[in-house]
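Data availability (excerpt). The following record was deposited with the supplementary files.
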Amino acid sequence: MRSVIHNGHTIQIPGMTVSGREDVRYDGAVVSSKRSILGATHVFDVQEMGEPVTYEVRLGMRWHGLTGWAHLKRNGELLFTDR
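Predicted structure:
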């Protein structure tokens, strides 16, 4: 699990699991849940300081299939990637 802290909020991005379940968490609460073997895109909306914010989390497998990668965007701006 990767954790990214931005503006005092914690976004937790799951790693790849055998079950394929992906739970994205925002401040500890599950905001998106999907099942995927090769990765999926999670989009969720929250309010931060009275403003609407859209987060996008893209998950995928590396070319060798042993580990995954993640991208995190906030209102279209890249905050984190380990690809």
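Summary of structural features: The mean pLDDT is 92.
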